[in-house]
Specification:
Layout lengths: L1 H10 L3 H12 L3 E10 L4 E6 L3 H9 L7 H8 L4 E2 L7 H12 L5 E8 L5 E8 L3 H27 L2 H4 L7 H11 L4 H8 L3 H14 L5 H10 L6
Antiparallel strand pairs: 1-2, 1-5, 3-4, 4-5
Helix pairs in contact: 1-2, 1-6, 3-11, 8-10, 8-11, 9-10, 10-11
């Protein structure tokens, strides 16, 4: 299973594609890659995630990056760690409660990474599988997961420079992405904007391609983080 996932990550053309394949091959709920690098000129982090656009928008708007305990622990740690079962308090506890209320799985595993150029990143795995199953999986897979995480990091290094460039989106593409981040599907957006559903889907498709993303959720994430839309 890990060998198949590793091969899928190697064959992926982008980090977005790599984390999506990684998630699907191993049955995680979500996978997130975050590098401790600010992208210029936007000053936003290099983040790739499979979380839905509504949660991504909420995370950004509430500035959860500053209180997310997994991010804090991930960039402080030198070894992978299980983040479920921790006793969170204060703002961190409120954040975790909000995350669970919005569909984030209640179990997770974080893999801190640092390469020879001292670039740091974390790969966070999120799941809602049974605790016993999850513990057994980690017991036999930890070393393999770290190797795959390093492959994803290497792929990300090649995208850092390109990610710093903010792609130009047409006004209608921005509008359609904005309403997607607010939880509307193509049919509802068509009514709101007075367009056909086909036209809305076309705008979303071209926006996704311009942003270099495999899925619409990933496109919304990059648009929000890049300041292209403000849900």
């Amino acid at each position: 299973m890990l060998a198949t996932a590793r091969r899928a990550v190697i064959e992926a053309e982008t980090v977005d594609d790599a984390i999506t394949r990684f998630r699907d091959h191993l049955g995680f709920d979500h996978v997130t890659y975050l590098a401790a690098i600010s992208l210029r000129p936007l000053g936003v982090p290099f983040l790739r995630t499979t979380y839905p656009p509504q949660w991504i928008a909420r995370y950004v708007l509430r500035d959860y990056l500053r209180v997310d305990p997994v991010v804090r622990m991930g960039f402080e740690a030198t070894e992978p760690f299980v983040w479920s079962g921790q006793e969170w308090t204060g703002p961190e506890g409120a954040f975790m409660a909000d995350a669970l209320a919005h569909g984030v799985g209640d179990k997770g595993y974080c893999i801190p990474l640092m390469d020879r150029a001292c670039r740091r990143s974390i790969l966070s795995l999120n799941t809602s599988m049974a605790m016993e199953t999850w513990a057994e999986f980690l017991a036999i897979s930890a070393a393999g997961l770290e190797k795959i995480a390093r492959l994803i990091h290497e792929k990300a290094v090649g995208e850092f420079a390109a990610a710093a460039e903010a792609p130009a989106l047409a006004p209608r593409e921005v509008e359609c992405l904005l309403w997607t981040a607010r939880g509307k599907d193509a049919k509802a957006i068509a009514v709101i904007l007075g367009l056909s559903e086909f036209t809305v889907r076309s705008y979303l498709r071209t926006a996704r391609r311009k942003l270099g993303c495999r899925t619409l959720s990933q496109a919304v994430a990059r648009a929000v983080l890049g300041g292209l839309i403000n849900p």
